[in-house]
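Is adenosine-5'-triphosphate placement plausible here? Inputs below.
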Amino acid sequence: MLTSDSSNDNALLVFDDVWVHSNRPTTIHVNHTDDNIFKDASKTTVNSASKNLFSNASHSIFNKLTRKTADRTHNQQVTDEQVLIKAASGQLAQGQLTVLTGASGSGKSVLLRVLAGLSPLATGNIWLNVDKNQQQNIHETSAIEWRTQVALLAQHPQLIEGSVLDNLQLPYSLHANQHSSFNIDWHIKQLGFLQRSQAFLQQSAAHLSGGERQLVNTLRLLQLQPQVLLLDEPTAALDAETANNLIQLLMHWLQAEPHRAMLWVTHDTQTILPFANEHWNMQAGTLNG
Ligand SMILES: Nc1ncnc2c1ncn2[C@@H]1O[C@H](COP(=O)(O)OP(=O)(O)OP(=O)(O)O)[C@@H](O)[C@H]1O
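Reply from A.M.:
I modeled the complex. Tokens:
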């Protein structure tokens, strides 16, 4: 078991014995719980002699009984608990790129969301070594504070209406980022890496391609200088050249400061793996480092 003291000196983000459950509501058809009512109802149906004995009053009782039976055979929502992540432990080291692969549905995105503080863990621990003297535990840190340091680049970027520039400036209108300010020069430099001119900033977000939306999403997140970047298939919607440019940009970001780490989920092992320091694999919720 990893403890905050036993983790590697270089470890930036450490997680230990993380379990994640889902409480997914499932609709089932219930028609077995009210056998007695069924029996009673069929008795009433079959026994026409009794029915005749009880004129209108008995007829209404009969109707009530059959209606009740129908109500009880309605679909019912039950909670079906599943284990999505089983006892996952690992460390993301400073300056390193860790690549996470695994079959579809194996739990890679769930793990990223949990590490980013966007989904709850059932048990286990996650902590961030902010610097030599400061350590933060996910259970004792506010969600906003955690997410400014451990950022998730989601698979499907959400952009607002307006220009690329409006989208890039958006985070600075949030209370959490009130102490930092938008740096246009930084963006122009990054656009150079991505082979885009400054005119890109004025483009309407509504007319961007899927790949361009991902570029905007990446810049919007990187400008806030997180320490740990969690990437969920960021190059999936990009052509080979743009994907390469984005990889260069992200590797440059990783190496620009010592206190940074990246965890990169991908199915495209050929392009990313050559850059990886570590390779993890996920199989049916079990993480193999
Ligand atoms: N919020 C949720 N509630 C319940 N189940 C979920 C939830 N999110 C994901 N799952 C389930 O967890 C399993 C793992 O999903 P996940 O998105 O992590 O897969 P993945 O490995 O990232 O797949 P892919 O490579 O296709 O993106 C799936 O069976 C999915 O249906």
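Short version: Residues 32-62 have pLDDT under 50 and may be disordered.
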